[in-house]
Amino acid sequence: MEFIKLAFHNLLRHKLRSMLTLVGIAAAVTALFSIISFNRGFERGLAEEIEKTGLHFMVVPAGCPHEVASLVLHGAVTPKYIQAGVMEEMQGIAGLELISPMLITQLPNPARDRLDMVYGLEMAHITAIKTTWTINGAVPAGSDGILLGAEVAAHDNLNPGDQIRYGDRLFTVTGIIRKTGSQDDAFVYMPIQALQEILSEPGRLTAVGVKVAQPEQLEEITADLTGRVPGIQIVTMNDVLRSLGTLANSAKVLSLSIAAIAMLIGAVGVMNSILMAIFERTQEIGMMRAIGANRQDIFRIIIKETVILTVAGGMTGILFSLIGAGAIEGFVRGIMPYVPSGRLIRFEPWLAASCILFSVILGMAAGVYPSYKASKINPIEAIRG
Amino acid sequence: MIELTNITKNYVRGAEQVQALRGIDLNIAGGEFIAIVGCSGSGKTTLLHILGCLDKPTSGNMRIDGADVAKLPEAKLVRIRRERIGFVFQQFYLIPGLTVFENIALPLVFNRKPKDRDRVMALIELVGLAHRVKHSPSQLSGGEMQRVAIARAMVNNPQVIVADEPTGNLDTATSEKIFALLQALHGTGLTIVMVTHNPDLAGRVGRVLEMKDGRIM
Ligand SMILES: Nc1ncnc2c1ncn2[C@@H]1O[C@H](COP(=O)(O)OP(=O)(O)OP(=O)(O)O)[C@@H](O)[C@H]1O
Ligand SMILES: [Mg+2]
Question: What is the ipTM of this complex?
């Protein structure tokens, strides 16, 4: 039997109290790990997603704030439209490999008595710009075919072959997009021309996605474009990365401060619980000194108790975060305007180890005072009772 | 083996000085069984703690086997306690979460000694608790708990057992048995110093010291 076993037994003496203290640490580590892991996942997912869009920049109406422009990528209904004629102007510019018009709007769905979010785009470009999609069914070939996001399909229980009416036109679902975990899931995808016809606004565009033939010429081309076409603004994928990164960063600072507070509360919990324990065990500590323990021995036993508590709490916290990852991500997706698709919170061993280590260091810091106090107990007074 | 000359011990209680021991001269030879008696507050426990190297005298001389220990720092005293002294208390002070075996082996942990299973088992046998090895203290009677405490005091092979009212919490019949156990240990050559309020037990040991107001009468 060593000190560690003694420390372990001491904690088992007040199972409920130790448990509650442990849960306090676990909650804090859950917050810490989830937040860091989520942020890393966010950055990783965002970079991957941008890389996979297959577009180099978006052309949006001038005056449209960057943040909003960035969201166009994931379907945001913006109040402004690109002026007529921009498409034609762009077609005259050399070096553009793909010019893909997009129109995002809401359409009444009379059958369901609500507004659907509709994304108009060039169906022929889908494989080029939505490289991550897997479609059950087919991309519409004609002007009356539509694709559904996974959520829309699941919500309305729609399958390929079903029909939906928008305005005076009847559309047939040709395919369902497999769940992406992003805002893409909530849209109906329609050939852009059909959408413009329903709105009676031929040529209306929310944005134009562009892929250049030679990425090295990107700067040249964007400069050229801004000079030649008035009333537009160019948002490169780097801009998108940066502005969404800023969004994520401000959330990160806030959430990390919450995690820090949680850690602090956890540490205070450890200190309180260990102080109570040594107070109750004063006589026993006196006895141990009499039978041969020195001050350092007592210190070691008590500090080991805090280490056991915090290691166990830390591991429980990691477990909680992994179990709760889905729920946490779902919650954040609900409140953040943009979250990259896919699983964001992952088990990364070094991150888990760092979080546990951090909680142990904090726990030890919280344990130093009680351990010191315990080591200072005067055995004679303690034994006298 | 232990020689005390003119030992005093003062405690500070608030503004007041308590003279717990006022000049103790005492020689304890190896293998003695000594009972300390006296009324409450006479200094018995204080003397016992000094004999057990748990407390330091305020003044005076103390030698163990000729070596001066009166002014040794705590770091040295704790070694003497580990190697030569066994403590037994009125309230037993067993650790509730540990088994009988583990409680007895506890001093070995502090003494950085390997857990000698055979020695611990032999001690359990000696104190008559062979059927209780894996029990926890809460499952034991008072007498059994004190037996565990005595075995624990013995595990480091001490020269001296200091016992502060070891039968103070026990009924007469159980006290007899615990006393018999101490006598048996004494029979093996151990030195025993026992504080007791029981005049009947005190009358049956080798030497009785009566204390009054911090002095031996
Ligand atoms: N830590 C202390 N601080 C102040 N006074 C103390 C302290 N310890 C003991 N005393 C005092 O010293 C005196 C002797 O105490 P001690 O405990 O040695 O007596 P005792 O003979 O063991 O009594 P009892 O039979 O009640 O156990 C008492 O007056 C006690 O109040
Ligand atoms: Mg006493």
Answer: 0.94
